[in-house]
Design a protein that fits this description.
This protein is mainly β. The protein contains no helices and nine strands. The protein has a five-stranded antiparallel β-sheet, with no helix packed on it. The protein starts with 5 loop residues before the first strand and ends in a 10-residue tail after the last strand.
């Protein structure tokens, strides 16, 4: 997988674009994501059902992974079972 790859969730409508990756398994709703949407949706895992927001970037604690949500859904993003969080915006410089 490389930056620019678009992944689709097997559990909900979520779609993401890969910005940065380190080779782990990117998941949504507890199921691995793929470039093609499966014909039959898998059940959403209760631990990964917080949802995704369109236009937000999701990162891991080490900043090895960064995903941009291009279509929101009910599943939440994770890598190898570790949840990703919304990336904070950079603070603007103070104007005196």
């Amino acid at each position: 997988m490389k930056p620019g790859t678009r992944l689709k969730s097997a559990t909900c409508d979520t779609e993401v674009m890969v910005i940065r990756t380190a080779g782990g398994t990117i998941e949504c709703g507890g199921a691995p994501m793929a470039e093609a949407k499966p014909a039959e949706a898998q059940p959403l895992a209760a631990d990964f059902s917080a949802g995704t927001l369109m236009g937000k970037r999701y990162v891991d604690a080490d900043s090895k992974y960064e995903l941009l949500c291009v279509k929101p859904g009910k599943g939440s993003l994770s890598v190898d079972g570790v949840a990703l969080v919304v990336k904070d915006a950079k603070p603007l410089p103070a104007s005196d």
